[in-house]
Amino acid sequence: MQLTFLGAAGTVTGSKYLLEGGGKRILVDCGLFQGLKELRLRNWEAPPVDPRTLDAVVLTHAHLDHSGYLPRLVREGFAGPVWCTPGTRDLVRILLPDSAHLQEEDARYANKRGFSKHRPALPLYTLEDVEASLALIRTAVYDEVVEIGGLRVRFTPAGHMLGSACVRVEDAHTDVTFSGDVGRPHDPLFEPPRPLRDVRNLVVESTYGDRRHPPSDPAAQLADVVRRVVARGGVVMIPAFAVGRSQQILLQIAQLKAAGEIPDVPVFLNSPMAIDAMEVFLEHPDEHRLTPAACEAMRDVASWVRTPEESKALNLRREPMILLAGSGMITGGRILHHLEAFGPDPRNALVLVGYQAAGTRGQALDNGAEEVKIHGEYVPIRAERARIDGLSGHADYAELCDWLRSVEAPPRRVFVTHGDPTASDAFRRHLSDRLGWKAHIPRHGERVELD
Q1: Any residues with CB less than 8 A from the CB of 273 and at least 6 apart, and which?
Q2: What is the rounded CA–CA span in Å between residue 330 and residue 75?
Q3: CATH topology agreement for domains 2-211+393-449 and 218-387
Q4: Do 26 and 83 touch, CB atoms closer than 8 A?
Q5: What's the rounded Cα separation, in Å, for the pair 105 and 112?
Q6: Where are the domains of the chain?
Q7: Dihedral sign for Cα atoms in the order 149, 150, 156, 159
Q8: pTM value > 0.85
Q9: Residue 240's closest CA among 92, 383, 388?
Q10: Assigned CATH class of 218-387
Q11: 196 in Cβ contact with 166 (< 8 Å)
Q12: C-alpha atoms less than 13 angstroms from C-alpha of 71 in its C-beta half-sphere
């Protein structure tokens, strides 16, 4: 079995792994590169493997850095099945059309305003490409075995988000497990990742490979920010990750309001994708911890903003409110328009609630940038910056090591991926120091033979 690293090698996005064995070629994950421009440009290059030669794609979960390149792959000739869990299928049906819509909208806006270097500006893919991709999706429940020629594929719960899975692929000679993104053992929304047992070869994420999640209470941090900003008549802007973190934040806001910990100011969920994801969340009660009462409180605490006109109207409001809007790293979406409107006012606050990849506006603002480029123009950001840690859906290095202790014997090969270089190298050392495992950080494009 041969494995080639076509993404998430030396970076935290663009997950793509070409696996060849059993007479078949499959791609495990099919993600977009995000963040730094040099990474994003990879999305526009010719596909790293001829899509027509692939027999199948297997998705660990729905986040765009794991699924968002699929429409481009289909546009370039892929026509095989796309295997995933039912939860991932339901979320991909939301995330991919939204991704195409934003790209088409951004291209139209760039052409209208004339700030793109390309004439005309074009989307990476269209809604038509997405529809062709969605028609290829096939589902398998956890522990069901999918046979692709001489390869056997099995999904097990990863605890990161709805439908998230670790993927084990085996042929007649060996096996390899792809961790995907691994959830936390005490996540307030999702059950913990299922322990791994027999693993010969392992590809493991390292998003938080160089840090621990803080012991502080995220709800208390959020309450402090809201009370402070509302007292001075400001607006709280929260860039929203549509799946998982948006629901967690809304649940915390509902609980804080019910306890009288924050003022009863209006809350708006201004992300059609997050709204649709909320409905999917409610349709999969077997995949999260919440009671029906908690789900109802989470759903009802915010007004749902669907149309562009409703979104624009929010920018005209001048009274205190809480705004959740996509995207979580401020790479696109409606948060950009709110940041233009409210970012220059020091009474307001921008609250970052998740990982901010290198090269994103979110990371720049988290590092203290005084202005950011939005729609071709630089916007001064004088609003208070706040970061609420502990809301991530990724296990930190200690939680990952604890999860991996269940493996019965050290894997023959361990590959550390899906992390910034410092995080991946730190996690490689943690695996050595804590578990006695030797691990390798693959280069982009590296090809290895699996024993």
Answers
A1: 94, 95, 98, 242, 326
A2: 27
A3: no
A4: no
A5: 10
A6: 2-211+393-449, 218-387
A7: negative
A8: yes
A9: 388
A10: alpha beta
A11: yes
A12: 24
Report residue 43 CA to chain centroid gap: 17
pLDDT tens-digit map of 138-155? 999 999 999 999 999 999
pLDDT tens profile 58-88: 999 999 999 999 999 999 999 999 999 999 9
Query: How many of the other CB atoms lie within 10 Å of CB of 447?
Result: 13
- 268, 224 contact by CB (below 8 A): no
Q: What is the C-alpha to C-alpha distance for residues 233 and 320, in angstroms, rounded to an integer?
A: 5
CA distance 334 to 64: 17
Please list the ranges in the chain whose pLDDT falls under 70.
Answer: 112-119
| 175-178 vs 165-170, strand pairing mode | antiparallel
Q: Is there a contact between 5 and 17 (Cβ–Cβ < 8 Å)?
A: yes
Q: Output the six-digit token pair for 58.
A: 């297997």
Instruction: Report the C-alpha gap between 9 and 13 in whole angstroms.
Output: 8
Domain 2-211+393-449 has CATH 3.20.20.80: no
Supply 111's token pair. 């052409």
Instruction: Calculate helix-pair angle for 397-404, 421-430, nearest 10 degrees.
Output: 40
Residues in the chain: 451
- Give 287-341 pLDDT, tens digit per residue: 888 888 888 898 899 999 999 999 999 999 989 999 999 888 898 889 999 999 9
Read off the tokens for 285. 């009660």
